[in-house]
Amino acid sequence: MSETILEVQDLCKHFRLSARQQKLTHSPDRVKKAVDHLSFTAQRGEMFGLLGPNGAGKTTTLRMLATLLEPDSGDAIVAGASIRTQPEQVRSRIGFLTSELKLEECFTPNFLFDFFADLHQVPDQIRARRKEELFTRFDIHKFAEVKVANLSTGMKQKLSLVISIVHDPEIVIFDEPTNGLDVITARVVTNFLKDLRAQGKTVILSTHIFSLVESLCDRVGILIDGAMVRCGTLEDVCQGRTLEDTFFALYEERGNTL
Amino acid sequence: MKSGLWTIFRKELARFFGDKRMVVGTILLPGLLIFVMYTFMGSALTNQFTVDEDFIPKVGVVDLPDSLNQLAEGGALPLELVPVTDAEQGKAQVTGEELDVLAVFPDGFDQAVAAYTPASGERAPAVALYYCSARTESQTAYSMVAQLLDGYESTLANKFDVNSDQDGGEMYDLSNEDEAGASFLSSLLPMLLLIFLFSGSMAVAPESIAGEKERGTIATMLITPVKRSHLALGKILALSLIALLSGLSSTLGTLLSIPNLIPDTGEVSISLSYTPAHYAALAVVVLVTVLLIVACVSLLSAFAKTVKEAQTYVTPLMMVVMVVGMTAMFGDGASTQVWVYLIPFYNSVQCISGIFTGQLQPHLLALAAASNLCYTALGVWVLTRMFHSERVMFQR
Fold first, then answer.
1. B223, A105: Cβ pair inside 8 Å?
2. Spatial separation of the C-alpha atoms in residues A122 and A116, rounded to whole Å
3. Which among A92, A103, A124 has the least Cβ separation from residue B225?
4. How many helices (H) and strands (E) would you count in chain A?
5. Average pLDDT, chain B
6. Domains of chain B, first to last
7. Whether B62 contacts B84, CB under 8 Å
8. What is the reported pLDDT for B270?
9. What was the ipTM of the complex prediction?
């Protein structure tokens, strides 16, 4: 029997636009609706994909789940903790990775692992085992004492992955995890996502790449203009069509033009 | 497992001390540069405004009176007198550096002086001294001749003396060396200490707060369970320690260079014969002041999107703090009014001033320390709120 580990309940988020932003976006409105009454659930051990174009509200949704942004209304229960009232518990139960989150370039992977393990209150004996396991899995040992500034983009991405799951979280949230990566590092990331699912972790993944969702996700939610327009298994959502065709049909149904 | 506060504190120190350029630029260089600069300035000033010890001024004299001529022939005057027939010619010789000073006496000077009585209401016989103030030798010669003539005038009508037994060892200035030195330190050090502590804070706080925002690394910490208050306090404590070390370096550089900056003329004597209680009080004031400065700089840095923007915000505050520090130069020791010790930064100036003059009362020190700690706590609270604010932390 499946267990709901993430429950998003009627989540809303608006951003106030400055005069300059209004001008840039040709918007007469002072307020932009980023996430509009969003609800969905994710089950333990499931990989859930949030699919949508740029500006659909994927990143805002994930940032709210990671408690970096506070919702205007609604709530989400993440592994039993509310993002509104128990943000610290939520943060201790999730791993969050986005290309916008950076690591201090003056530190080494060894230092950063220990630093984030301390912030996550990982006990010393567990930390040592976990470091060995993850550093071996991602081949980090050979550059463990090299400053981040001197690492390649691929090495940095591997390290970011490791840092995001240093505390062995129940839910892992990835925002556009393969953005800007070369094909080899992108494959390392997708293999890692599969590993996480195999370990029984719940993975929430935002992307605009159809093939990634089709190859990895158990269920998908299509987000357009901040609203969830379709959510379910790939079969339920696509109903015999390709994911790409389904997405564009829904996109045009919402009054958008290509 | 370690607390979030300690983890953040250690990380900030590791970031700073792991960067050799930061350590050299923030801690070693300020003290070294101040020492070299002040020593150089002192040496340059000394060379500019003093003449050789065996300097004998060449004094042109028009109508030299017999009385002074006798003194000169007796070797009583440390001058070389050069008779000049025409005043205009003498002035040209002064500007042409052939003479250091020109003294023009009125015709019949001795007789006019003997006949003059102050009660008559008439103008006293006048001696004109011409010199070039731009030339150190001429300026020195002028001072010597003016002093000699003043002395000569006193001997003509010596009715009473003031403090005449100085040669006999009588001490008329009842302040001791410590007090004279303390007065000097209490007017100068408050401003210097505030500037040094502020400079140290400015070198590290914008980089640590606005820099982390700019690089996106603070968001990586914000998605961990670390308490925002621990993040704020851990940063402020670590940055305060670094600012203290920077301030200490600059203060040492200054104290070591003061003897070179101010040559021992006997007018100002720097004595540091303070008790451990004085130093403990100074340590308390410096500690609470640096915490407050770092809290203020951190708050302004948290508002900024980039390090550059943060430095722009912080500069006006530094000017305000400098002006507050300068008030010690114009005051007369530490204030005894209680409310003064509630004003941030100004209370530190008053405390430092009071410590060096020995006027500071313990309850005023306690009040200043407590109020500064309260302001710092308020700053930590606001910074914590800012770390919670998505508008502040993620606005682009």
1. no
2. 9
3. A92
4. 10, 10
5. 85
6. 4-45+176-394 (no CATH), 58-155 (3.40.190)
7. yes
8. 52
9. 0.87
Closest B-chain CA to A167: B224
Of B7, B390, B348, the closest CA to residue B190 belongs to B348
Report the alpha-carbon distance of residue A182 to residue A42 in Å, rounded: 29
Residue A239 has pLDDT above 80, yes or no: yes
| B342 contacts B257 by C-beta, under 8 angstroms | no
Read off the pTM: 0.79
pLDDT above 60: residue B267:
no
Domain residue extents for chain A: 4-253
What would the mean pLDDT of B119-136 be, rounded to a whole number? 85
Residue B48 has pLDDT above 80, yes or no: no
Q: Which of B23, B35, B37, B39 is nearest to B246 (CA)?
A: B23
Sheet containing A31-43: order of strands: A31-43, A4-16, A73-78, A81-82
d(CA B133, CA B294): 48
Backbone angles phi, psi at A133, to 5 degrees: -60, -50
Q: What is the pLDDT of residue B201?
A: 94
pLDDT digit string, tens, across residues B334-375? 788 899 999 999 999 999 888 888 778 899 999 999 999 999
The answer to whether A37 and A226 are in contact (CB under 8 A) is no
The second-level CATH assignment, the architecture, of A4-253 is 3-Layer(aba) Sandwich (3.40)
- Which residues in A lie closer than 8 A to residue B2 (C-beta atoms)? 118
Among A70, A84, A94, A119, the residue to mutate for chain B (most B Cβ within 10 A)? A119
Instruction: Give contacts of B221 with chain A, Cβ < 8 Å.
Output: 119
Other Cβ atoms closer than 10 A to B80: 14
- Provide φ and ψ at B78, rounded to 5°: -80, 50
Whether the per-residue pLDDT at B124 is higher than 90: the answer is no
Number of cross-chain residue pairs from A and B with Cβ atoms under 8 Å apart: 67
Cα(B255)–Cα(B257) distance, integer angstroms = 5
